[in-house]
Amino acid sequence: MLWFQGNSMQLARSSLGLFLINCSASKTTLPVLTLFTKDPCPLCGKAKEVLKPYKNRFILQEVNVTLPENSAWYERYKFDIPVFHLCGQFLMMHRENTSKLEKQLLKLEQQSTGG
Q: Transmembrane stretches, by residue range (predicted)?
């Protein structure tokens, strides 16, 4: 699932797979919050519900670590789901931390407005 706003998305390739990154200083694009998940993942569902009030401030990208093309992520996070990256950088794992997310989003928003 992806929440898209703006039209400037980049695909980035890392040693651990392909994912979206968007953390430019542009005022029209949103940062990408990547959720590393699997099916079933009750904690992931709960985390997505808790993060819904923030959905207009980021693009949510879900990566199912059980898919063959995501095997590197599976090896890295198989015991830690849910895991969140913001702009390609680790943010939090095991459960959502809204204060940490809020702090990082504010930092990015200030950078994009020159504040």
A: none
Query: In 3-state terms, what secondary structure has residue 95?
Result: coil
> In what side-by-side order are the strands of the sheet with 89-93?
59-64, 32-37, 83-86, 89-93
Average pLDDT, consecutive stretches of 10 residues, N- to C-terminus, the chain (115 residues): 37 45 63 96 96 95 97 96 97 96 95 77
Please report, as a single letter, which amino acid is at residue 64: N
Cα(41)–Cα(32) distance, integer angstroms: 21
CA count, 13 A, side-chain hemisphere, 85: 18
- The predicted pLDDT at position 62 comes to 97
Q: How far is CA 14 from CA 25, 70, 92, 103, in A?
A: 22, 12, 19, 26
pLDDT of res. 114: 74
Share in percent of the chain as helix, strand, coil (round to 5)? 35, 30, 35
